[in-house]
Amino acid sequence: MKDYKIPTLNINKFSDKEFSLYSFSARDYRKLHIVNENLIKLSDLLEEKHKAGKEIGSENYMKKSKYRFLKTVNISKNYILDETSIEYCKPENKVFPKKNEILIVKDGAGDGLGEVALYPYDNSENLDSLSAGIIAINIKEEKRYYVFGLLKSNHFKNYIDLNTAQGSTIRHAKLIALDYKIPFPTTNNHQEPEKIEKLVSIITQNIIDKEEKINEKNKKIDKLIEKELQENQKSENNFKYSYPKISEIKKESRLDTGIYEKEFKEIDFLIRNYGGGFMRFKDFKISFKSGETPKNYIQKNKGSYIWVSNRDFRKNIWKSFTEINAQYVKNTVPINSILFSRRAPAGVNQVILEDHNMIVNDGIKIITSNKFDHSNVIFISLFFNSSLFQNILIQLSGGGVFGGMTNIDIENMLIPNFSDQKQQEIAKEYYNKINNNQNLNLDNYLELEKARNDQLGIFQLNMEIFTLREKLENIIDKIINDKKIDINLNY
User: Fold this and answer.
1) How far apart, in whole angstroms, are the C-alpha atoms of residue 355 and residue 346?
2) CATH code, 376
3) CA 367 to CA 296: how far, in whole Å?
4) Does residue 33 lie within any of the structural domains?
5) Strand locations in 213-311, DSSP E?
6) Rounded to the nearest 5°, which phi and psi values hold at 309?
7) Do residues 254 and 174 share a domain?
8) 250 phi and psi, to 5 degrees?
9) Do 371 and 297 belong to one domain?
């Protein structure tokens, strides 16, 4: 094993005529650390030439279309394509991704540069195309998930960062990703290196499957809510839309047009006309606490508190956590409370069901009630996050990234009075614990884990993804450093 030496500079060199050739920036002397010498260049693992995305021109964007234009924002820390924010366009698509191609961000800002994602669709009708900030590669099938696991590592992100010029907000890595040398396991890692390669591959596939199951369960929750509302309407009433009267505007005391739009009124009617009746959120005797960013804190790998901002969660999903050590913490988040984002975008929420010793920033309202129990607090959170109700929240908050909601807005939100059985059915899709698989090995791991993923709730899938990502990162770090790896498939 080679000894790694930190590069140094001789200060005497700065006195000669070539002084201007030297940089005083420490960044210019960073090198990517790698001990493993069993390396294969990424470009040598491709089935075919890479694809480079192209722009379509701003005039070709449109809101309602079956054609989608995938941009760098759709490639995130997720392992599969992030479809929470999709741009639509005219049929001017030029570069088309295909199933199981790996998409790499070559032009990006901040942490976005060097992110990768697996494209999951056949795209046989060429409905999806790629923007200029993305390249697509097709890895040989037998190496695909091992290579993908390596490309999701911090090592690859650091490689792109080190080899991309600084300067403007948007940095351009060009095709430098194709020169990345993928480290493969050696006998220093394990006496049978191919087992370590398989280990990385199956853990990567398990993460992908969990993300796919989360997407499926979120869609199922939306369908269950909409179906229950639509199939149980009071038959004596029919929806009729009319323009708002002066009396209605006076009653609402609002001039923004969103709450008078047809779409808002139609969904509002669907809830009010539900056969089981409805409640206002304030009927739960809710109370509010505002989050507050600690004045003095230290970010730690293992801290005393989990600190959350409204950017750390989206629809029923935790995107990230930050652990900190802090003093003078006022409000920790109790179990069976709802975190309600007041802005960017307003109304997205997350339910807290376990004790995490969590604190939140001032962009979040902590909502609690003595009337909340396990099932109804989950249902309320899922209902507010549903695609149906989010259309209402957009209008209530005034729309836009910086829309905001007052306590009164939140208190008056409508909740359909679903039966306890229906609430529990919906809540189970989000929170459902299943015992860990036993006696796992490299051959049965993926089959057993996929079957278990079918049963797990979104929350459990989400938390296990964090665990597996960390586990995979540690394995890859040992491959890079040519260190021994014990095969352990337990969580």
Assistant:
1) 25
2) 3.90.220.20
3) 25
4) no
5) 278-280, 287-290, 297-299, 305-308
6) -110, 170
7) no
8) -65, -40
9) yes
Structure tokens at 476: 């890859």
Q: Is residue 479 part of a domain?
A: no
User: What's at 405, amino acid-wise?
Assistant: M
Successive 10-residue mean pLDDT values, the chain, 491 residues: 57 56 57 90 96 92 92 95 92 91 91 93 95 95 97 95 81 90 98 98 98 97 97 83 62 58 83 95 94 79 83 90 81 90 76 90 91 94 93 67 70 94 97 96 98 98 97 98 95 83
- What pTM was computed for the model? 0.89
**Residue entry with tokens 């070559």:** 106
Looking only at the bridges linking them, the beta strands covering 67-70 and 128-130 are: parallel
- C-alpha to C-alpha distance for 306 and 143, rounded to whole angstroms: 37
100 in the same domain as 47: yes
| 277 and 403 inside one domain | yes
What is the domain range of residue 103? Answer: 42-183
What is the Cα–Cα distance from 216 to 214, expressed in whole angstroms?
Answer: 5
Query: 104-114 burial, b for 16+ CB within 10 Å, e for fewer?
Result: bbbbbeeebbb
Residue 33 has a CB neighbour count (10 Å cut-off) of 11
The H or E element containing residue 323 is strand 322-326
439 phi/psi in degrees, rounded to 5: 55, 40
Query: Hunting for tokens 């293992």 — which residue is that?
Result: 302
How many structural domains compose the chain?
2
Same-domain check for residues 148 and 90? yes
Provide the CB-side half-sphere exposure for 14 (13 A, CA). Answer: 6
Same domain for 171 and 236, yes or no, is no
Let me know whether 327 and 417 are in one domain.
yes
Q: Which amino acid is at 455?
A: Q
Helix/strand/coil for 130: strand
Measured in degrees and rounded to the nearest 5, phi and psi for residue 368 equal -130, 160
Identify whether residues 314 and 399 lie together within a single domain. Answer: yes
- Per the document, the length of the chain is 491
Taking the C-alpha atoms of residue 381 and residue 359, their distance in angstroms, rounded to an integer, is 19
Helices and strands per DSSP (H, E), number in the chain: 11, 23
